[in-house]
Design a protein that fits this description.
The protein has 81 residues and is mainly α. The chain has a domain of 48 residues. The protein is 53% helix and 0% strand. It is built from three helices and no strands. The radius of gyration is 16 Å and the shape is extended.
């Protein structure tokens, strides 16, 4: 299924992310590939994230997505003017 976007309006963040991921071949680092983890390893990763959350070691999602989009744009040139 192909994905198209209308050029008469700016793309929303969700559209940009969906289109970006649809076009890029993204490999998951083995260290976070849940298909290769044991149940214990997966639980340990989830618990570590939860402990970060409880300790306030978090960032707003909008900030993270803006950073990721900027990195993808620099690497793959998705948002050329």
């Amino acid at each position: 299924m192909s994905q198209t976007a209308s050029l008469d309006r700016p793309l929303s963040r969700a559209e940009r992310v969906r289109l970006s991921y649809g076009q890029a071949q993204i490999s998951v680092p083995e260290s976070i590939d849940t298909t290769r983890m044991s149940r214990e390893e997966l639980v340990a990763h989830v618990m570590a994230g939860y402990e970060d959350y409880l300790a306030g070691r978090v960032r707003p999602a909008d900030e993270v997505f803006d950073e990721l989009l900027a990195e993808m744009d620099a690497k793959y040139g998705y948002h050329q003017a």
